[in-house]
Amino acid sequence: MKEFSKIKKKLLAEQVEEDLYKYILKSELSIGDKLPNEFELAEKFGVGRSTIREAVKLLESQGVLEVRRGSGTYIVSKSYIEVDPLGLGAIEDKMALAMDLADLRILLEPGIAEIAAINATEKDIKELYELCDIIEEKISKDENYVEEDIKFHTYVAKASKNMVVEQLIPIIDTAVMIFVNVTHKKLIKETIMTHRAVVNAISERDIVGAKTAMMMHMTYNRNLIKEIKKEK
């Protein structure tokens, strides 16, 4: 009976996830706006607060919502981000997951940036610079930039022109999304600086510079996660 109850609860949360997503699409709420609180949503959908929390978690794992502790739940996208092929979003210890993903990214992304410095087209470089501009503008306006941050790392990977690297993009995208959610965007200055350094090096065909700049970016990320873990 307990197992059946768990299955029923999961199915209900998935149904509410779908209903909540439709509500977000049809409402006048925009990206960056805060959702109504749990009480209001529970009343609106006729379910308990725990079901709303589960539905919100599901949408958070898909990159639609972002839960900010002590502040509320915010819309970060109106479309599902096709990421998380390994089901990493279901892991409860997000801090440990973020650290493991940071270690994986250090192994992968500096090398990817190095290859991108060799193979990137002028169009790729232009798109990367445009993303830097958008991210910096959103940061200056205190707007959510998680979608653009994900796109930045996606475009660097695509610029490598390596077919295998492109298959790793969903994992990289998941790592970026989880990192932003865990750290609440505490590396703003470092993000601006290292993103620019990566693109400048790719533009100059500087393979050592691209690899080093990406390594610096990853190192900032990892060190912050390490600090946050110590505080908990």
Name a few traits of the molecule.
232 residues; mainly alpha; two-stranded antiparallel sheet; 3% strand; elongated
Structure description:
72% of the residues lie in helices and 3% in strands. Mean pLDDT is 85; it is low at 1-8. A hairpin with a 3-residue loop joins strand 1 and strand 2 (72-75). The chain has a two-stranded antiparallel ribbon. The radius of gyration is 19 Å and the shape is elongated. It is mainly alpha-helical and 232 residues long. It contains 10 helices and 2 strands; from the N terminus they run H-H-H-E-E-H-H-H-H-H-H-H.
Q: Give the overall shape, derived from the CA principal axes.
A: elongated
Bin the helical content: over 70%
Binned strand content? under 5%
Structural class category:
mainly alpha
The pLDDT mean sits at: 85
Chart the SSEs and their pairings.
Layout (H helix, E strand, L loop, with lengths): L1 H25 L11 H8 L3 H13 L3 E4 L3 E4 L18 H26 L2 H19 L5 H14 L3 H5 L1 H15 L4 H16 L3 H25 L1
